[in-house]
């Protein structure tokens, strides 16, 4: 590609301040690594964290802090930065929101073990194995001795090292020993995270029952704490708490979390560093509902304050740097084409929220990209969906809503692809989470959902009912726990629902096995779900990826972290776009439940659909639609940029095929090439609004 001026590069590339990077993420997720960091921003908080971490490493006394900041101040990014910077000095755990207050200990344990199963950068083993091998007993006697059949010796040695206060020590230490066996590692880790394992797997690790309640989960977390003073500190990062259950006045119900925090302190559990990340206003509202004794366990409050204009410039500079590298001549200012004056005029007090700084950059770069185009004036950013459109001599401008829809479709495809890379099995999630994903997706489609269908208090959270458009009442039970005894109990509860005729149709959703004819649960399942009306559905991973993707976007919308075209997308608006685009039509599970109509194609951007670039008509149409959406969103870009993003979306598609479709769209008067004398990949393609294209 030839070197171009900065003005040309701005038009060839997409806007570097794309607001979709603001959404919620777990700092173990790959997209976090793509967010550029400015070290001077919130450096005082990072320094204070390091100071507290060093104190804990020396005296092993657990400390808890609140990390507070306005929406858009960078709380999640700061947590990820702390993990990156200090992962050689501590083990990091990411704990997201919980669905039900009655499962908070089990949720915390599950998230803790899931994070400990992650492999830190520059390491070849998981945090869990690194933590285990850092225990003194392994250092003193050598790990090899313990691998070769001396499980009982290991258990006795650990019990001697930690003689007081351990919960079920023989079982716990036995499972820790099994972590050193590659064949038993997945089972042992599953037991630790609270999976309801089947009898065969339990027998392999010499355990009679799974962790089946809050008391047991609390006991396992306590065990981690009691022996962690011999290792690096464990940093428990509670983030995305703005999605936890609410109290009647709309404030967050944080008391269950503070019960955990107080328990950690009251039981003198060592070497924990608890970070509770919250939006400042939500923290202030919730404070009055937290018991005074629980507030006393907080050590500090770390506040993410507004940034100054020098830091704002640095934030702009890291986003613009990739464009500067492609420009010739090189810009003299690190923030060109933006200016310090723009910052001073926008933030006269000299302070700003990081997200606001990025939004100003987005708007100004978008204005410059579209300024003085040699052909026609593209869509504007300021018009609102549903308002009367202005007319020009040659065209009627399209509303911003069309660009929002295109941006949403592109975001969905990107998020779905990311989910498909991270989600490979149903048991990555608890049955409670799976049911929640499905309920939320149904609600987005305008379906009325009523939770807790099963009469059993133990299993009612695994069930719900909803009403189809045909007014049928549909019951749903989703359980993936492999334990056959638990499955039998769920089926007993399902039988009561069937006999009560609360639902016209009852569905069991279960991808895992249901046992065999010798199992009582299997027998009941066949009795209930082999009837004509009731059904056992075996969902596919693709459907799960749809549900997880929507859930992540919905949580971002709830917390004000979902932005498209510089607009904050509220949950109701997200749900409306889901219905308008029919983005969930490709979810087979929703089709089978009758919540969406069966579609021949997928508006959801199935990565496997036609991604081999075989030139079929169906694939050409899907690729062509992607290019149209990409250009509706960005309005102009070089052919090279279109090729790059299309090939990122459709793995294996040929460059020639993309270029041919661009030419086809030009012939259809959808696109216009405004500099045809340039090399093909450098040529800037400008979208013609559809209202003008039809003239």
Structural summary, described in words:
The protein is an alpha/beta fold and 695 residues long. It has five domains: 6-14 and 310-402, no CATH class; 43-90 and 232-304, P-loop containing nucleotide triphosphate hydrolases (Rossmann fold, 3-Layer(aba) Sandwich); 121-230, no CATH class; 426-539, Trna Endonuclease, Chain: A, domain 1 (3-Layer(aba) Sandwich); 617-693, Winged helix-like DNA-binding domain superfamily/Winged helix DNA-binding domain (Arc Repressor Mutant, subunit A), CATH 1.10.10.10. The chain has 29 helices and 17 strands. It has a five-stranded parallel β-sheet with strand order 2-3-4-1-5.
Low-confidence stretches: 376-397, 607-615
CATH homolog superfamily of the largest domain: P-loop containing nucleotide triphosphate hydrolases
Strand tally, please?
17
- The proportion of strand residues reads 5-15%
**What is the structural class?**
alpha/beta
Give the overall pLDDT as a whole number: 88
Strand numbers in spatial order across the main sheet: 2-3-4-1-5
Output the number of helix runs. Answer: 29
Q: Which fold name fills CATH's third level, the topology of the largest domain?
A: Rossmann fold
The main pleated sheet reads as:
5 strands, parallel
Count of folded domains:
5
* CATH class bucket of the largest domain: Alpha Beta
* Estimated helix fraction: 40-55%
Architecture of the largest domain, CATH level 2?
3-Layer(aba) Sandwich
Name the overall outline: globular
């Amino acid at each position: 590609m030839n070197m171009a001026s900065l003005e040309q590069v701005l038009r060839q590339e997409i806007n570097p301040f794309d607001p979709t990077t603001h959404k919620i993420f777990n700092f173990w997720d790959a997209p976090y690594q793509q967010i550029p960091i400015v070290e001077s921003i919130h450096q005082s908080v990072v320094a204070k964290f390091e100071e507290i971490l060093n104190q804990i490493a020396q005296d092993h006394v657990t400390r808890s802090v609140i990390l507070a900041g306005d929406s858009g101040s960078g709380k999640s990014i700061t947590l990820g930065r702390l993990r990156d910077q200090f992962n050689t000095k501590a083990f990091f755990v990411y704990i997201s929101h919980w669905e039900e207050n009655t499962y908070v200990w089990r949720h915390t344990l599950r998230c803790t073990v899931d994070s400990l199963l992650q492999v830190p950068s520059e390491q070849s083993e998981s945090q869990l194995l690194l933590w285990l091998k850092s225990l003194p007993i392994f250092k003193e006697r050598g790990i090899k001795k313990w691998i070769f059949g001396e499980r009982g010796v290991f258990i006795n040695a650990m019990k001697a090292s930690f003689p007081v206060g351990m919960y079920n020590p023989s079982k716990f230490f036995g499972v820790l020993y099994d972590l050193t066996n590659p064949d038993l590692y997945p089972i042992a880790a599953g037991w630790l995270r609270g999976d309801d394992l089947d009898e065969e797997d339990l027998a392999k690790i010499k355990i009679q029952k799974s962790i089946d309640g809050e008391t047991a989960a609390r006991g396992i977390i306590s065990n981690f704490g009691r022996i962690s003073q011999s290792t690096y500190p464990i940093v428990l990062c509670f983030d995305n708490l703005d999605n936890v259950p609410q109290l009647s006045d709309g404030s967050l119900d944080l008391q269950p979390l503070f019960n955990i925090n107080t328990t950690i302190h009251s039981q003198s559990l060592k070497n924990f560093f608890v970070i509770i990340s919250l939006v400042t206003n939500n923290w202030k509202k919730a404070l009055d509902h937290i018991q005074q004794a629980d507030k006393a366990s907080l050590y500090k409050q770390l506040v993410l304050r507004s940034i100054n204009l020098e830091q704002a410039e640095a934030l702009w500079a890291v986003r613009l740097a990739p464009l500067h590298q492609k420009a010739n001549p090189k810009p003299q200012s690190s923030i060109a084409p933006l200016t310090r004056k723009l910052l001073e005029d926008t933030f006269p007090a000299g302070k700003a929220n990081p997200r606001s700084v990025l939004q100003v950059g987005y708007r100004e770069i978008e204005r410059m990209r579209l300024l003085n185009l040699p052909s026609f004036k593209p869509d504007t950013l300021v018009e609102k969906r549903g308002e009367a459109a202005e007319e020009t001599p040659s065209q009627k401008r399209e509303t911003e809503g069309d660009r929002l829809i295109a941006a949403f479709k592109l975001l969905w495809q990107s998020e779905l692809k990311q989910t498909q890379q991270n989600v490979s099995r149903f048991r990555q999630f608890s049955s409670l989470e799976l049911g929640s994903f499905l309920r939320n997706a149904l609600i987005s489609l305008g379906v009325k959902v009523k939770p807790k269908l099963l009469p059993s208090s133990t299993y009612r959270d695994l069930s719900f009912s909803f009403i189809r458009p045909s007014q049928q009442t549909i019951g749903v039970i989703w359980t993936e726990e492999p334990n056959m005894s638990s499955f039998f109990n769920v089926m007993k509860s399902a039988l009561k629902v069937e006999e009560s005729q609360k639902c016209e149709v009852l569905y069991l959703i279960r991808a895992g096995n249901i046992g065999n004819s010798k199992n009582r649960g299997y027998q009941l399942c066949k009795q209930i779900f082999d009837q004509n009306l009731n059904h056992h559905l075996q969902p596919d991973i693709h459907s799960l990826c749809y549900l997880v993707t929507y859930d992540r976007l919905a949580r971002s919308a709830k917390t004000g972290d979902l932005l498209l075209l510089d607009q904050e997308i509220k949950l109701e608006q997200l749900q409306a776009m889901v219905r308008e685009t029919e983005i969930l039509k490709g979810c087979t599970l929703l089709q089978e439940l009758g919540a969406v109509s069966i579609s021949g194609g997928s508006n959801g951007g199935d990565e496997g659909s036609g991604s081999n670039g075989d030139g079929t008509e169906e694939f050409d149409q899907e690729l062509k639609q992607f290019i149209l959406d990409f250009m509706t969103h960005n309005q102009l870009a070089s052919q090279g940029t279109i090729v790059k993003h299309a090939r990122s979306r459709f793995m294996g598609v040929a460059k020639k095929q993309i270029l041919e479709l661009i030419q086809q769209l030009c012939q259809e008067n959808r696109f216009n090439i405004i500099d045809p004398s340039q090399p093909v990949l450098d040529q800037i393609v400008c979208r013609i609004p559809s209202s003008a294209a039809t003239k």
